[in-house]
Amino acid sequence: MSDKEYQKLAFIGAGNMARSLIGGLLNRGYPAQKLACSDPSEACLTAAQKLGPITTTHSNLDIIADADLVILAVKPQVLKDVLQPLSSLLKQGRPLLVSIAAGINSASLQQWAGDEVPIVRCMPNTPALLQEGASALYATDQVSDAQRSLAETVLSAVGIVAWVEAEPTLDVVTALSGSGPAYFFLFMEAMQAVGEQLGLDAETAQRLTQQTALGAARMAVESDDDVAELRRKVTSPNGTTEAAIQSFENSQLRETVELALTAAFLRSQDLAKELA
Fold first, then answer.
1. What average pLDDT does this structure show over 12-33?
2. Is 13 helix (H, G, I), strand (E, B) or coil?
3. In a domain, 172, yes or no
4. CATH code at position 239
5. Is residue 170 part of a domain?
6. Quick count: other Cβ atoms within 10 Å of Cβ 49?
7. How remote is the C-alpha of 182 from its chain's centroid?
8. Tell me, what's the pLDDT at 271?
9. Taking the CB of the first residue and of the last residue of the chain, which one, N or C, has fewer CB atoms within 10 A?
10. How is 71-128 classified by DSSP, letter by letter?
């Protein structure tokens, strides 16, 4: 594909997630001259410039003027103030807007940007910073098939992508994969602490916990078996693993996970109402 065939991508906000997306695109061969970002912070722009010879500026208007896709990578609380001054230009050019701001629904985005502007909402998670993310996308009716493909190209640069057809489903995604890394970190934190209590030094407990989590995740991703079958295969009758699993079951681990994800799901719904 020649450079002329690549779409112009503009990032409003040059924080960690935006820089992760830019870095992932550059690593996949996306031409730097087709990428631009804006941010009020000079430090963020300097960090973005270190990724490659992309265009950087403090002006949001400058970078969206000829953009095919605009990624909104700013905090939800400031998104309205960022979008409203751009609405006339967005209505004129009608680039695809991709918002990674949690809790701001498409109706609000449409109101601030203009009814004609196509919008994709995205819920990524923090492993995207290592190009190991999981992102769910929702598209409004104004989004064309070509624009859906372009949005997928951008987000797949930092991990896997899944489309949802109903916008409220993004609250489920927030509870599952958006907040999910923290659940695994908590479990690893607990495993490491108990390893130390039972006699391991801190460094050994940390290394063994981290590598076990990494190895288990890779097995889950790469095996033809589902996770329930993988668990059964490593749980020998009357063995050590069975003793631990039985303790988890007796402590109602599954019910605890259900309560936790439901709490996150309900809080995501509440935040959307507060930010609307």
1. 95
2. coil
3. no
4. 1.10.3730.10
5. no
6. 14
7. 13
8. 86
9. N
10. EE-S-GGGHHHHHGGGHHHHHHH-PEEEE--TT--HHHHHHHH-TTS-EEEEE--GGG
